[in-house]
Amino acid sequence: MAYRQTPAVEARLQDNRTRILQAARALVSEGGWQEAQIANVASTAGIATGTVYRYFPSKAELFAEVLSRVSQREVDVLNDIAQSDASAQERLHSMVTTFVRRAMRNARLAYALIAEPCDKAIDEERLKYRAAISEVVRAVIASGQQQRTMRSDVRADIAATVIVGGFMEGLIGPLSPLASSSTDSDEQRAEVAALADQIAALACASIRNAT
């Protein structure tokens, strides 16, 4: 007879996995991927190092899962905006400003997700992340083209790829660990708001229908 895990065991296993992922995310937020060594993750999660390896056979797999979960949350936020009743231009502007502001709110984590040198497994997950965001942007652009408020002389998928690549590239400098990433003061919050608006304005201008 096959062994069946009891609900209590299943809950404990799931709790361990959640604690590992939360610990890894917190460490990446503090010091990037290099901070989230398995021993550090285990210590932060309050479990043995060997237990981490039971759930994630390699550091790369753990990192890829962290990136996947955080990325999906960002995609969900943008998708909610894309589904609103605002015009295509307004939705695109709001999507970009929201992405920038959320990234700057946790700059170290965002830098790790977008630009920090990493393992191949993380790079592959990054490509999925960009593709998912590009698809949300593509749908908004396609909607704007149907409404004739956005240029119809470019393919929506190409425009989306260029726009997503542009606003992510525009964030690398501000997100860099070498830059001041604090947003605690009114002045710093105003600077982030201005940055978000400028990047969004450029993104919208690139696809706006001039006629």
Please write out the topology.
Blueprint: H1 7-31, H2 38-45, H3 49-55, H4 59-82, H5 88-105, H6 107-114, H7 120-146, H8 156-175, H9 186-207
Question: Overview of this structure, please?
Answer:
The chain is mainly α and 211 residues long. The chain contains 9 helices and no strands. The protein has helices at 7-31, 38-45, 49-55, 59-82, 88-105, 107-114, 120-146, 156-175, 186-207. Helix 4 packs parallel to helix 7, helix 5 packs across helix 6 and helix 8 runs antiparallel to helix 9 (186-207).
* Mean pLDDT level: 90
What is the alpha-carbon Rg in Å? 20 Å
Total beta strand runs: 0
Q: Give unreliable regions as ranges.
A: none
Hey, roughly how much beta strand do the residues contain? Answer: under 5%
Task: Give the gist of this structure.
The chain is mainly alpha-helical and 211 residues long. The chain has helices at residues 7-31, 38-45, 49-55, 59-82, 88-105, 107-114, 120-146, 156-175, 186-207.
Supply database-style keywords.
single chain, 211 residues, mainly alpha, 0% strand, elongated
